[in-house]
Amino acid sequence: MAKNLLKIKRRLAFLLLFCLLLSCVMIIRVFWIQFVRGDELRTRAEEQWTKDTPVEPVRGTIFDRNMNPLAISAKVNSVMASPPDIKDVESIAEALSEILNINKESLINTINDAKAKKKGAIYIKRKITDEEAQKIRQLNLKGIYFTEESKRFYPERNLASHILGFTGIDSQGLDGVELIYDKFLKGIPGRIIKETDALSRELPFGDERYIPPKEGLNLVLTIDKVIQYIAERELEKAIAENKAKRGTIIVMDPKTGEILALANKPDYDPNDYRNYPQEARRNFAVSDTYEPGSTFKIVTASAGLEEGVVRPNDRFYDPGYIIVSGVKIRCWRAGGHGSQSFIQVVQNSCNPGFIEVGMRLGKERFLKYIKAFGFGETTGIDLPGEAKGILDPNKIGPVELATISFGQGISTTPIQLLTAVSAVANDGRLMEPHVAKALMDKDNNRVMEFKPRVVRQVISKETAKEMQRILESVVTNGTGGRAKIEGIKVAGKTGTAEKYADGKYIASFVGFAPADDAKLAAIVIIDEPSTGIYYGGQIAAPVFQKVMSDSLKYLGVKPEIASEEDNRIEVPDVRNIYVEDAKKILKEKGLDVITEGNGLIVGEQTPLPGIKINKGSKVVLKLTDSKTDKNPIVVPDLTGKNIKEVTNVANVLGLKVEVIGTGYAKKQIPEPGEEVEQGTVLKVFFEP
């Protein structure tokens, strides 16, 4: 009996121990599930019984420095489907494929695949037009609904496209400042959360939560829309006239490093970037390198003056060539320039003279200045894909040193060279170039400001002032004569570089104005002109002159040198009026008119109103096909126009027309020149 009792006690003890162990395991398991994996499992559970629809935030607007919008976002509809709620997949796919212009079979497979995977929501097509959305709404398809997303628009189309860049389908920045400042512009997405059943169908009385998105910050650029337009206009003309492969113009404030314009041609429309080749989207101004040619002589001359190896009045003799380590290097001018001062060496862009300065400096000292001016490294400009140029000190021997002295055997980017020359204009201080000015919230409060940054003092103020005077003489007495601006001191240097392909050249000009107190610095590059003229002084300098002249006038920079006869006229404001009236006003002032674009209303004008220009100067009117909102309206002269022409003019001016007779307008009431309110009826009498 005692034996059986002991046996029972052992079994009870074993059972008790087993229960204790099992309880411990269960407690540990509960602790593991509840506390260690609690958040993860809770999230997974919520994902199973809820449908989470993202709400895209509005991307921040990009403005120019004067708050003109260059990139904006608008709300558009995206079509979504709830696969569990779709009963007849084929009929739904047929209806949607016709409206949205997508493949029916592909759509059927997409919906069926989502059903098989028990997905609660899928995109059918994103960012559709209002017309497409309206047609789908009218069908009232079960399981089909809409969500709002943000779509990017670029109202100025191609203008400043290489600066702005573009965005992808998810409104993510893919190029330009859209990419560089994406984290500030994109905002924080919101969500719509709805409860669903086990088959991912929405519960009719389920809980619904809306987490609103947070808008992105607005970006203000240093770019000036008007100067950008001037640069693009002149560059496009120059490429067409010289039948060139491509070209670049950059305009900078040399004292701050702010980029006021950056233009490349060919360019592209960011609204439709997929239909442009990769080459058109490439930002040559910062991403590609080229041999600067004679424009690089500014660096050689600055280094020579700073180190004291040459003085402005030192004499040089150029027989037409110079021999370096047994290699004969010729001057661009057959027979040479003979005896000349160093100032004349710069004016004449004499290669042997610059080679001699380079040899006096020596490799180490010369390289010190080349690197100090920023060559061989990126400038730090806030645009993607910047190249650092080609400069390998280990490959520089006596001959290479000689060729670098006049701008061959070294590669730079346009932004590098302009930044270096701007240091001369800025009394020797090298600035970091930048295109972003500030970040602002939706209430226009400044969240972040991008201030000018001095990189280093490259040369002394005294040397810089001397170089300013010498470069001014290049324009007044040397190869840069076609860059002259009446009444304003211009400093600059021409450049002509032969490419490694036979017969291919790059013509360039870099400079600043006014020479002794620069407001603007600019570089013009024309790549591979094919009309037989390829010198920088002939091709690039006139373009520089037009861009700099119009830009300085726009900025209100007055001539320093009085002209013999003061024929200056203040430009009247002809924006937002009928083009024929605008022409009449300008011609009465003694100004010539050039129209650009299609339409009957003046949208923009260059120069802007209030700027004084010489009598006989050209005013560019950019036309638009939109209506004018100017009120009252000056009645135009409709005499000689047919009924269609009269109706078109009246429509854009906001006037009504009573047509009497047929043929051409002979008489009108009210008469031309009278001021009337919008909506006024014009009686126009027509005769055959």
UniProtKB/TrEMBL annotation:
One Gene Ontology cellular component annotation held by this UniProt entry: plasma membrane
Domain of life from the UniProt record: Bacteria
The species this protein was found in: Thermovenabulum gondwanense
Gene transcribed to yield this protein: spoVD
Domain PASTA: 565-625, 629-688
SMART domains reported in the protein's UniProt record: PASTA
Cited SUPFAM superfamilies: beta-lactamase/transpeptidase-like (SSF56601), Penicillin binding protein dimerisation domain (SSF56519), Penicillin-binding protein 2x (pbp-2x), c-terminal domain (SSF54184)
Entry keyword set: Membrane, Transmembrane, Transmembrane helix
Cross-referenced Pfam families: PASTA, PBP_dimer, Transpeptidase
Protein name as catalogued: Stage V sporulation protein D
